[in-house]
Fold this protein.
Amino acid sequence: MADQAMLVRTLVELADNLVDDFDVVEVLSLLSGRCVDALDVNAAGVMLASPTGSLQVVASSSETMRTLEMFQLQADEGPCVEAYRSGQPVVNVDLGATGGRWPRFASHASSEGFGSAHSLPMRLRQRTLGALNMLRTQTGAFGTADIAAAQALADIATIAIVQHQAADDAQALNSQLSAALNSRIVIEQAKGRISEATGADMDHAFRILRNHARNHNLRLTALADQVAQRNIDIGSLDTLPPPRRPTARW
Amino acid sequence: MPAERLVRVLGLLVTGGAPGGRRLCEVAAQVTEMSGAGVMLLSEDRPQASLCSTDTVSAAIEEAQYTLGEGPCVDAHRQGTPIIEADLAAAGPSRWAAFSTCALDAGARAVFGFPVRIGTVRLGALNLYRDRPGALGDDQQADALVMADVAASAILAAQSDGYPGELGVDLEADTHVWTVVHQAAGMVSIQLDIPVGDALVRLRAHAFRTGRPASEVARDIVERRLHFDPGT
């Protein structure tokens, strides 16, 4: 039976980790450890799919569990692999039964003393990110309440990972935004320097900058930065005749 | 209930005006019942640009922070927490040595800054002001927090359609980087033969000393009415 107090504490811990800048591996290790503490299981681990779709062991409650998870990946069979591929829970599989669905994994896990395997997909909408894997020394049915509690923990971990990815996107976009603003500023500074040094107005200063960048196959921002940083002599920029003024009317 | 506040804000954003930076600030001022609002983009620790401001007072508050590098948005961005100054006049220059005077001169009596961020990614700050002193009520504060979140999402969404190295199309149209100030800094850097960063400091110091907005001083430099001489 699930330890309610421990479950609540785990949920709070996971939620805390969600808001701060967190490490995915740390959160999933916490999840694996707490599954063992709070649920009626003896070992737990998490596998996540890489962007190319291949599963990787990310966290395990014990070294034995890690070895068994690695074995699943090598043998390409086992509860975690199946839950990930099907996107469906795989629960209450008796490892002692002969001729089972994962003969190699079952014999390996049995030899380590485990009696039954359970795996829950980590899903968000249409996407399966990985699976939470749990092993028990006993055979027989895993309680429905325990399965529901384990799924709740897996769901929270899933949301954490998705949010983390969104935050990574946000970081990239923010850096891009900041760099774009900065290049605008640098271009204005370069225009100011060219304008003062040559007597050109700002529009013409910009044309001088752009013309030199084109002639020498330089990025406008890179050239502007050189000018603003005083790394290039303004006198060495290609000259450009000022545009013909409209004829004055009088 | 944050969901209800969010629905209200989104409802206002999609109706009653063209979407974009300007509408974002109008809705911010409206839902929080403030005299005006603005959104600033900040980098590490400095204002980089203004996304919007509802009126001249709000614009002056943003420019003062841009010029002086201090104020509620700068603090909110650095500290990652809301900044409340319910009575600028009573607090005096102890709160912000130079900004407070500028904000009071512009007509603000209370100023507030809310960090605009997603998770740990800090984009800038929402700036609210009121033309009379007074704290924020719980509802106003809750609405301001929702508004800051909406601004963060809106900014990232707008940037996500930009090419690498460029601003997103909507941001290109809305953001204000006080171009004239940087043009003038470039000119002063030639006049005094100093780095552009130092020239910007000199320009800001001149603006502060003469009690004028930096952009006004900059305009004088660019239009060659003001010249910095070495040794003065």
Notes: Chain B has two domains: 2-174, 179-222.
